[in-house]
Specification:
Elements lengths: L1 H16 L5 H8 L3 H17 L6 E3 L3 E3 L2 H11 L1 H6 L2 H15 L5 H8 L3 H14 L5 E4 L2 E4 L3 H14 L2 H7 L8 H15 L2 E2 L1 H19 L17 H12 L6 H13 L2 E3 L5 H22 L6 H20 L6 H9 L1 H10 L1 H7 L5 H16 L5 H4 L13 E4 L4 H14 L5 E5 L1 H7 L8 E4 L12 E3 L6 H14 L7 H15 L5 H12 L1 H10 L4 H4 L5 E4 L4 H14 L5 H14 L4 E3 L2 E5 L9 E16 L2 E13 L6 H12 L1 H9 L3 H14 L1
Parallel strand pairs: 7-8, 7-9, 9-10, 11-14, 13-15
Antiparallel strand pairs: 1-2, 3-4, 5-6, 12-13, 14-15
Length: 694
């Protein structure tokens, strides 16, 4: 019996990861030897074979994984209890769900019997809930544990949980909400969109309808939102509240507090088209978006000036603003991937978003920053300009000549990053714009050229006579493997050796045109046809802060003028042949055009311009002011105590160094010590010790 349980636990773990799992990871997770894991894999494969299901596969160099059939067939029937018992994430949600739904104390013994785990496991789970969800205020009563929080906070948890996985979705679906007809609900929601003159993404629409089912159930059981003020909705047009009120009354929801609460949910969701924001706030957000993009341009050295990009990001930032304002957390697994995979960009976007943070009146959560990063990742991911992609309409005829159809229901950021990653990796293959599931089904009935469907949404594969691959919008190693394998099978030209391809193209070009720089042409062709190879090479050239910093890069400044101090720091870099004299002019022209555009914090100014022929290599000069100087920024006075001139090099070699710098400035305790130091060597030692310890 124990061996069977161990085999099922192994199947459950690999299945839930939805990626390749290394042998080392399995050994560490189960705390056993490699030999034991090999034995359990054998037991697991015997169990799978007995159920006529595919075995665990071991892909050399990648790890272990299970076929999608395991999710569809085996997991739901054979290890459903194990999915809660051994999957901590689902177990936590099950415990909180019981505490919310029962509205009475839940004892440890009850949970032990229900979940088939030990008392220590439940006790540790309670500790975890208190740490991760403090707003639920989990407390102990004489009869067990209760959530001593408002109905508002309980629903905040449900909102967040609906984004993580399907667990809470299934729980809501199991509730008795017989008064709500699913088809009629969708029809009524379409009418609501029409009245609001707006259009939600498919994932937003789905989540809102799930939440309405949950809200209806709670109200029927006398769990009603209290003390919600309409003053929280000053950014919307008056007709917005009227439309929400009429919509909810169809489901016997008449309480003013509930109408305001659902209005907030609407505002927190992503929309493709938004027309319910008042003109004053709309202008404010558009100006803030332009400011964010301008700050990002100066930090990253990328020149984004696309009108469509500005409008798309501005549209997204409404949801960011309202979720941050109302403390509704947005969190999905892809956001952690972004934080881990693009740490420099997360820092840049976080710094660029300071103007939005000031409007909200509090810091923007890191997951929201990661979500905004999707836009900038997407822009960087396309070699020309993303504005063409963002400007595309929803006309399916544009996709009739595509080689590969893309389906993504999450929103413009997820859609764009999926497109940009594939477009850049396979430039000779024509990918469609992002299609909704409905439009995919319409398109497939019209004569088209598609050979493959790549989707981030679950779809019924039996409806299509071409292969379907399910991926994440930010594709991981397993997704890339599946897509690459299938594309090489469908498009044999992708399997041709790189050097042979370049050589053949060079021969064709040589026959028809005069080549002035053969080596440069080869490199340009290689960068266009095989961009991932060049990206990997460029990543190796990224420098850390300590790679470009020594005590000679630190000096004390005495001028009372921002421009004079910048000139002093630039002269030091020019003497070391890091920059030319023109780089100083680049920075001063930016200040003349935008004002003091780059405050990194309340007292630190970053003097920085885009890579050019004026930036010979990556370098830095840190200036500590003996006496602070005052500058005016957006109508308010800031006192500057530190000025930093940073040269990005010629190919953004400074990205990691700048991220390191942001980390130092964000550490208030450390940076206060730096500002108050009067020795270059002491400042350098503080910085070096910081990175050695971290």
């Amino acid at each position: 019996m124990q061996q069977t349980t161990q085999a099922l636990e192994l199947i459950n773990y690999i299945t839930n990861q939805k990626r390749y799992v290394s042998l080392e990871e399995l050994c560490k997770y189960f705390d056993v030897s490699k030999r034991t894991i090999f034995y359990r894999i054998k037991l697991a494969n015997n169990k799978l074979e007995a159920n006529h299901l595919p075995k665990i596969k071991n892909i050399r160099g990648m790890g272990y994984w299970l076929d999608k059939d395991i999710n569809n067939k085996f997991q739901t029937t054979k290890i459903q209890k194990l999915d809660i018992k051994n999957n901590k994430e689902n177990r936590i949600k099950e415990i909180i769900w019981q505490l919310i739904i029962k509205d009475t104390p839940v004892s440890i013994n009850r949970l032990v019997d229900c979940l088939e785990v030990s008392r220590n496991t439940i006790i540790n789970d309670f500790k975890y809930i208190k740490e991760k969800y403090p707003f639920l205020n989990l407390t102990t009563s004489t009869n067990g544990h209760v959530l001593n929080c408002s109905e508002y906070n309980k629903r905040r948890f449900i909102y967040q949980a609906l984004q993580d996985n399907d667990f809470i979705n299934h729980k809501i679906a199991s509730l008795n909400t017989s008064t709500i007809n699913s088809a009629q609900l969708k029809f009524n929601f379409n009418n609501l969109e029409h009245q609001l003159q707006s259009k939600f993404t498919e994932s937003a629409r789905k989540r809102l309808l799930q939440l309405l089912n949950f809200i209806s159930y709670r109200i029927v059981h006398n769990n009603i939102i209290e003390n919600t003020s309409i003053s929280d909705l000053t950014e919307v047009k008056p007709e917005f509240i009227t439309a929400i009120t009429n919509f909810l009354r169809q489901y016997n929801i008449n309480q003013k507090s509930e109408i305001i609460f659902f209005s907030k949910l609407i505002l927190c969701e992503q929309v493709k088209v938004i027309n319910y924001i008042n003109s004053e706030f709309q202008e404010k957000m558009l100006a803030t978006t332009k400011l964010i993009i301008n700050r990002y341009n100066q930090i990253s050295g990328i020149n984004i000036n696309s009108k469509n990009f500005i409008l798309a990001l501005s549209n997204h930032l409404y949801a960011t603003y309202f979720r941050s304002k109302y403390s509704f957390t947005f969190s999905t697994p892809i956001l952690k991937t972004i934080e881990n995979k693009f740490p420099e960009m997360v820092k840049f976007v976080q710094l660029a978003c300071n103007p939005l943070s000031k409007i909200i009146g509090k810091p923007i959560p890191i997951d929201e920053i990661a979500l905004i990063c999707l836009y900038f990742i997407s822009y960087n991911g396309i070699s020309d300009d993303i504005s063409d992609f963002l400007a595309k309409t929803n006309d399916i005829t544009e996709s009739l000549n595509a080689d590969v159809l893309l389906v993504c229901t999450s929103g413009v950021s997820s859609s764009t990053i999926l497109y940009s990653n594939l477009h850049k990796r396979y430039p000779l293959i024509k990918f469609s714009k992002s299609l909704s599931i409905n439009n995919l089904e319409k398109l497939i009935r019209i004569p088209n050229t598609a050979k493959l469907i790549i989707t981030t949404a679950p779809i019924n594969e039996t409806k299509f006579d071409i292969p379907v691959i399910k991926v994440k919008s930010l594709m991981d190693q397993r997704d890339n493997y599946k897509v690459d394998k299938t594309l090489k099978k469908l498009f044999p030209q992708l399997s041709i050796d790189q050097n042979k391809s370049i050589k053949k193209l060079m021969e064709i070009i040589d026959q028809n045109a005069q080549i002035y720089n053969e080596e440069k042409l080869k490199n340009d062709l290689r960068e266009y046809l095989y961009p991932y190879s060049s990206n990997e090479q460029s990543e190796k050239t990224k420098l850390r802060l300590l790679d470009i910093l020594s005590s000679t890069n630190i000096e004390f400044l005495k001028h009372n003028s921002l421009n004079e101090n910048i000139c002093t720091l630039c002269s030091s870099l020019e003497q070391r042949k890091v920059i030319t004299s023109d780089y100083k002019e680049d920075i001063l022209n930016l200040i003349k055009q935008y004002g003091p555009y780059m405050l990194m914090s309340t007292n630190v100014f970053l003097a920085h311009a885009a890579p050019s022929s004026h930036t010979l290599k990556a370098g830095i000069q840190i200036g500590i002011l003996k006496n602070s100087i005052s500058i005016e920024v957006n109508g308010s006075i800031s006192k500057i105590e530190c000025i930093i001139v940073l040269s990005p090099g010629f190919h953004h070699e400074h990205d990691r160094a700048l991220a390191d710098l942001i980390n130092i400035i964000s550490d208030k305790n450390l940076f206060n010590k730096i500002i108050n130091s009067r020795s270059k060597s002491q400042i350098y030692t503080l910085i070096r010790h910081y990175f050695n310890e971290n």
